[in-house]
Write a structure and sequence with these properties.
The complex is a heterodimer. By secondary structure, chain A is mainly beta. In chain A, 0% of the residues lie in helices and 45% in strands. Chain A contains no helices and nine strands. In chain A, strands 1-9-8-3-4 form a five-stranded mixed β-sheet, with no helix packed on it. Chain A has a four-stranded antiparallel β-sheet with strand order 2-7-6-5, with no helix packed on it. Chain A starts with 8 loop residues before the first strand and ends with a strand. Chain B is 0% helix and 46% strand. In chain B, a hairpin with a 5-residue loop joins β6 and β7. By secondary structure, chain B is mainly β. In chain B, the strands form two sheets. In chain B, strands 2, 4, 5, 8, 9 and 10 form a six-stranded mixed β-sheet that branches. Classes of the chains: A mainly beta, B mainly beta. Chains A and B meet through β3 and β4 of A and β4, β5, β8 and β9 of B.
């Protein structure tokens, strides 16, 4: 599975959009991009996933570049409850799921 | 519906003792995963069960670690002769084997080895 690179931390003002980048330059054609988040002391929570098209759901939007080497998770109106560690992983679903370790992610801090 | 549950939520054990951690996946989820998360670090894959196929044990750190799963139900992770470096939160997740294959995580078991 492709390795991902994320910034270790980011800040965002409450009510503003939070844009979290992820680089996955070695992604293969059949690998999906998944985003999860982990709020302190809880298990990770699925947010969104995509293959090559941009995706949107009730939680967030996912923008994948045309060459698929990077993606951005967008939280359109960040709230204090969005403070968490955000993990970007790529994998061929569903096999090899475990081999895509979650890494250290990006710690997003939403400030009032 | 019910999510993934894990027990116990906290476990304190003495070095050298064996421990068993339990995971109840979401009903109908064929795939089950175990991860370890040390304090302040990301998730480390341990083992993956997919239906009746042979499990992927490639993430188990040593032969002191083992896991079993009966069919598509409960799984137990066993750590023998625990060491202090085994102290971590052990997370279990389950997923369907159909798109989008997202994993649903349990709350974890916090293991402390003294």
């Amino acid at each position: 599975d492709a390795k991902t690179t994320q910034p270790p931390s980011m800040d965002c003002a409450e009510g503003r959009a939070a844009n979290l980048p992820c680089n996955h330059s070695t992604i293969s054609g059949n690998e999906y991009v998944y985003w999860y988040r982990q709020i302190h002391s809880q298990g990770p929570q699925y947010i969104i996933h995509g293959l090559k098209n941009n995706e949107t759901n009730e939680m967030a939007s996912l923008i994948i570049t045309e060459d698929r080497k990077s993606s951005t998770l967008i939280l359109p109106h960040a709230t204090l409850r969005d403070t968490a560690v955000y993990y970007c992983i790529v994998r061929v679903a569903p096999t090899n799921a475990g081999k895509s370790t979650f890494g250290d992610g990006t710690t997003l801090t939403v400030k009032p | 519906g019910a999510g993934v549950s894990q027990s116990p939520s906290n476990k304190v054990t003495e070095k050298g003792k064996d421990v068993e951690l339990r995971c109840d996946p979401i009903s109908g989820h064929t795939a089950l995963y175990w991860y370890r998360q040390r304090l302040g670090q990301g998730l480390e894959f341990l083992i993956y069960f997919q239906g009746n196929s042979a499990p992927d044990k490639s993430g188990l750190p040593s032969d002191r670690f083992s896991a079993e799963r009966t069919g598509e139900s409960v799984s137990t992770l066993t750590i023998q002769r625990t060491q202090q470096e085994d102290s971590a939160v052990y997370l279990c997740a389950s997923s369907r084997l159909q798109p989008p294959y997202e994993q649903y995580f349990g709350p974890g078991t916090r293991l402390t080895v003294t």
